[in-house]
Amino acid sequence: MNGSFHSGFVAIVGRANVGKSTLLNAMLGQKLAIVSPKPHTTRHKLLGVLNGEGFQAALLDTPGFLRRGRDQLDAAMSRQMASALADADLAVLVVEPRPPGDVERLLVDQISASGTPILLALNKIDSVAKRKLLPVIEAYTVLHDFVDIVPLSATEKDGVDVLLRQLAERLPAQEALFAPEVLTDRPVSLLCADMIQEKVFLLYEQEIPYDVAVEIEEYEERAEGQADLVRATIYVDTPSQKRLLIGAGGSALKEVGVQARADIEQLVGGPVYVELWVKVSPKWRRKAGFIQRMV
Ligand SMILES: Nc1nc2c(ncn2[C@@H]2O[C@H](COP(=O)(O)OP(=O)(O)OP(=O)(O)O)[C@@H](O)[C@H]2O)c(=O)[nH]1
Ligand SMILES: [Mg+2]
Hints:
Layout lengths: L5 E9 L5 H9 L17 E7 L2 E7 L10 H16 L2 E6 L6 H12 L4 E5 L10 H11 L4 E4 L8 H11 L17 H16 L9 E8 L7 E9 L2 H8 L4 H18 L3 E9 L7 H7 L1
Parallel strand pairs: 1-3, 1-4, 4-5, 5-6, 8-9
Antiparallel strand pairs: 2-3, 7-8
């Protein structure tokens, strides 16, 4: 890096499930974004501010690319990705270690049309043999004039420092955009909702996670030494989903609470009491007003 300070917005984009949120967390060195093995876990853009030596990167995690939206939630997720890109000084396109597919081509076209430089993060290199990487890198080199192509593993934290160095150099030479203590602009109550949503993604199968939305009814900060209270409603689409979510004797829902609580306590740095309620809200994915409250 030269002598001047660099800062700017970086949109982390790509196909669903390629590891965008895992990469955000790896860059920040802490868990902020939710992660699951199921595609389309992330529903909104999420700012994570990283302060490094001589730079500040305002990193924006985004929902996985959706080609054709089916409902209001899909539309909202697509808008979230587009708005992160519109703000970005630089895009990090996250891909898996295989040759570019339709989605990657489309994204490259879309981003480069707006003139935003693209850094390619070739993630999950821990999952393939080294000799398989070279042809992938070649295919991407032909596709577009990327700022750089960085092979990495977000889960192993291998190559993440290289990506950060590349990224920092490409940000505009300007003062920091956020005060040094700012990690995100997402209120803690919404981060709690995210953590609960993540546990639903991890603990339930089939369509359930996709038909679940979480709303925090109350986040009550208590005095020093007492646990904060998080009261959340988990919305589902149908009564049978409500039964499944709650489980026999409430056992399944209890597990959601136990696991979410551990993450929330880490986030707020103190004891937390999590109270969960389940409500049926038929076809909420199609209701623009409802989505606006959640995303
Ligand atoms: N082997 C391996 N798995 C990874 C790596 N990075 C992420 N994953 C896994 O890939 C899955 C998806 O990770 P996410 O971070 O949720 O992916 P995403 O791109 O944010 O997904 P959406 O939000 O659904 O678009 C999870 O099971 C991660 O553990 C990696 O470097 N190596
Ligand atoms: Mg994600």
